[in-house]
Amino acid sequence: xxxxxxxxxxxxxxxxxxxxxxxxxxxxxxxxxxxxxxxxxxxxxxxxxxxxxxxxxxxxxxxxxxxxxxxxxxxxxxxxxxxxxxxxxxxxxxxxxxxxxxxxxxxxxxxxxxxx
Length: 116
Fold this sequence. Notes:
mainly alpha
């Protein structure tokens, strides 16, 4: 059976874009002594890279997913990459309450994907 890249590639690109964006949003916290303007400049540079991933992902993904489905994938990727980044870079393990909250996000995603 051939691989349907229109289904898979947008998900991979959205995951990559969310990794980049979470680093742009929170990575500068690893160096709080650096000047703010530099953090902003680096974050905007990363945001450009993020847009270079997310715009084609949405364009390609819209051929096989609905817009609510694409947004749900993006939200799931954002939450997942955030938890992993907070854990890896800042040693902030998710609590049970936070995991329960993320489980609710997953439950919402199931609802979005189950409806027509």
